[in-house]
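Closing statement on the histidyl-adenosine monophosphate sub-project.
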Amino acid sequence: MVQAVRGMRDVLPAEAKRWHLIESTVHSILRQFTYEEIHLPLLEFTELFARGVGEATDIVEKEMYTLADRDGDSLSLRPEGTASCVRALQENGLLYNQTQKVFYSGPMFRYEKPQKGRYRQFYQVGAEAFGFVGPDIDAELISLGANFWRQLGLEKQVRLEINTLGSRQARQMYKKALVDYLTPKAGQLDEDSQRRLHTNPMRILDSKNEQTQAILAQAPDLSMFVDADSQAHFDELLELLQALDIHYVRKPNLVRGLDYYTDTVFEWVTDDLGAQGTICAGGRYNTLVEQLGGRPTPAAGFAMGLDRVLLLHEVVNQTAMNSAVDVYVCYSAPQFAAHAQKLGQWLREQDLGADTAALNVRVNMGGGNFKKQLKRADASHATWAILMGPDEVAAEQLTLKNLSDGQQVTLSKADVVGHLAGTGSN
Ligand code: HAM
């Protein structure tokens, strides 16, 4: 049997229910904050990510799925959504002289070492805001996250870590100071950090190696290089967060793995998922639009890792998600098959009231006597079974059985609906 590609995982029905709950909760919060949904292609020119995410980042250097198409163009499966989003809005004339708030969801691809919470195909929901200069939008983006966790019941599991990188120039100056400090000590750094010293030195701050961290203790301090404007932006943001009752932890070493960030960077992290604790991350990227050929446009955003939020949701809510079947229709003989399917259709179309979702109805397939069909109904975790035999059909009635307590009533079709009201489980 051919197996799944390493790092590409299947989301099976039980998990997909949880997935749907998380994604629909997050989408509806994004819509309430008036972010508009966009859909972006999975494939882009490789150059977009090289220029956007950064040639020297791990993502572009070693993690992209890159292929030549039949014209010889170099294309890559998107490793993230921000660069694509900028490309799409720019290309469609939606950036210049206007503001935009958008969100997208879908799979991203990175050739990383797979482990729990880290996959080669993973799913993000991302939000991006363009044309807003002040820290109010940074605060709104963070507040979106706080809303997600609250509504998903995860607020006790996560904390917000935040930092500012300053302007692009400030970052360049800091980078140089860091390289000057680390170069004479290069031999004592871990292997990854030695490589990064030449490619992406700021990522060394993220190193988990103890000896490297000991060396970094005396390194130049990023916050000393942050320019006055950026500092004022950051201070205002922190004040806004306090006023919004959003708790944060300042992390002077938080730098992020993508090159486009300026000023604010933040991560929502949890201790409940081991090493893959970052469930959502983002920041400001005021120079990316220009870097990709557009006019200077302030921008900020984040992406949530749905696979990780799903794992965290499972840790907190271990009970399996509710069954998708509300009503299981059983019928006594093959001549009632069409009757049963029509009844199923009719039930699915019933309006059970404003607060109740439409019914999920499974009609028995594959025959069998009532005993066998009721066994299937139980196995489907349906709340109700409907039994339809010759008597019911002749009298235009239905027998409704409550599968948890076994109680049975025979009712007219119209009365059945009243009885079922309030049981929709969508
Ligand atoms: P990122 O930090 O690379 O940022 O990814 C965002 C989130 O995606 C991570 O915090 C994590 O939850 C999830 N994630 C990343 N890689 C994997 C993986 N291999 N397996 C499972 N989950 C993963 C970005 O992608 C930026 N585009 C975020 C952003 C949007 N910044 C501004 N706007």
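The chain has a mean pLDDT of 94. With this model delivered, the sub-project is considered complete and its resources will be redirected to Aim 3.
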